[in-house]
Specification:
- The protein is α/β, with parallel strands linked by helices.
- The chain folds into 2 domains: 3-174, Peroxisomal Thiolase, Chain A, domain 1, CATH 3.40.47.10; 180-335, Thiolase/Chalcone synthase (Peroxisomal Thiolase, Chain A, domain 1, 3-Layer(aba) Sandwich), CATH 3.40.47.
- The chain has helices spanning 20-24, 31-38, 54-68, 93-101, 117-130, 156-159, 208-214, 228-249, 267-277, 288-291, 298-308; strands at residues 3-12, 17-19, 42-44, 78-82, 107-111, 136-143, 165-174, 180-188, 196-197, 225-226, 259-262, 317-324, 328-335.
- The strands form 4 sheets. Strands 1-7-6-4-5 form a 5-stranded mixed β-sheet, sandwiched between helices. The chain has a 4-stranded mixed β-sheet with strand order 8-13-12-11, with helices on both faces. A two-stranded antiparallel ribbon has the order 2-3.
- α3 (54-68) crosses α4 (93-101) and α8 packs parallel to α9 (267-277).
- The chain is globular.
Length: 336
């Protein structure tokens, strides 16, 4: 059985910076209110008409990751794309990336696990490589939230949190069993699905013809819904559980962690987990202050920034963890 390791990382965020003060001009909010509750100072939003989509941002991040992996695009054997905001209802962005990168005919898989999407995607890629089926798998997390948010006072509880961006990793075969992805751990709890959700458009309760005919401006089902306090309480519990699960699987302890890269959902969640595990500021990487919550893109963006800034070094124990809509959550333990 082979092992898998990350050989290339890349990310892309739009140039358009939206500050908390910018949001205060279009909804009843302010910088202090947002920072106190989320830790966010600014986020990036795609500008309508500039050409950025979920797919194109993923492609830009992927090109960087492939170059850093020191392989050719045609060395990619498989694509796994995680997102909740695809360009089209179908087909998914995986095949669009294959087309836009000009990669030879390979398999492409879309993962719909929202905030934990990149963790799930890495796990899938890891298993394909460990089985010997593929040698180089391109894993992308990309989100374009801004075009689907309720940018009014009614939607401020959700809309101030999210930003746009993409991150990518190349996962490659390795025969070094002591390095790479040591284990991954995935969970779900569907009984709380509606606590963090976007109900429409969907085929479950409303026909497309009904949606078109209604055209009700007060219909909030088209916008994300989040029971913030309930999500927070569940997140801190599940984050802790799944991190410990990964550490115990590999006979490790919290003090063995060189760097924890949590999903960038809320700075307060990250700080809670940091304090619970007794980690120093240099052992946890956060960038939600700059980018907001970019859902499936948040971990690859943060991991890339951490690596670029020298916070990820050869031999380090790196832990990735996420919790989000579904509820779904997971962790990945990596020996760099």
């Amino acid at each position: 059985m082979y092992n898998s390791k990350i050989t290339g990382l890349g990310y892309y965020v739009p140039e358009n910076v939206i500050t908390n003060d910018d949001l205060s001009k279009i909804m009843d909010t302010n910088d202090a209110w947002i920072q106190e509750r989320t830790g966010i100072k600014e986020r990036r939003h795609v500008v309508r008409g500039d050409g950025d989509t979920t797919t194109t941002m993923g492609v830009k991040a992927a090109k960087i990751a492939i170059e850093r992996a020191k392989i050719d695009k045609d060395d990619i054997d498989f694509i796994v794309f995680a997102t909740l905001s695809p360009d089209y209802y179908f087909p998914g962005p995986g095949v669009l990336v294959q087309r836009d990168l000009g990669i030879k005919t390979v398999g492409a898989l879309d993962v719909r696990n929202q905030c934990s999407g990149f963790i799930y995607a890495l796990s899938v890629a890891d298993q394909f490589i460990k089985s010997g089926m593929y040698k180089n798998v391109l894993v992308i997390g990309s989100e374009l939230h801004s075009h689907g948010l309720d940018m009014t006072t009614r939607g401020r509880g959700v809309s101030v949190i999210f930003g746009d961006g993409a991150g990518a990793a190349v996962l490659s075969r390795s025969e070094d069993k002591g390095k790479g992805m040591l284990s991954s751990h995935l969970h779900s709890e569907g009984q709380h699905a509606e606590e963090l959700s976007l109900i429409a458009p969907g085929m479950g309760k409303r026909w497309v013809t009904d949606i078109i005919e209604d055209n009700d401006p007060n219909d909030e089902s088209y916008y994300p819904h989040m029971n913030g306090q309930f999500v927070f309480k569940n997140a801190v519990v599940r984050f802790s559980e799944v991190i410990m699960e990964g550490l115990k699987k590999n006979s490790l302890k919290p003090e063995d962690i060189d760097l924890l890269v949590p999903h960038q959902a809320n700075l307060r969640i990250s700080q809670f987990i940091q304090n619970k595990f007794g980690l120093g500021n240099d052992q946890v990487f956060n960038n939600i202050m700059k980018y907001g919550n970019t859902t499936a893109a948040s971990i690859p963006i943060a991991l890339t920034e951490a690596w670029e800034s020298g916070k990820v070094k050869d031999g380090d124990l790196v832990v990735l963890a996420a919790f989000g809509s579904g509820f779904t959550w997971g962790s990945v333990i990596i020996r760099w």
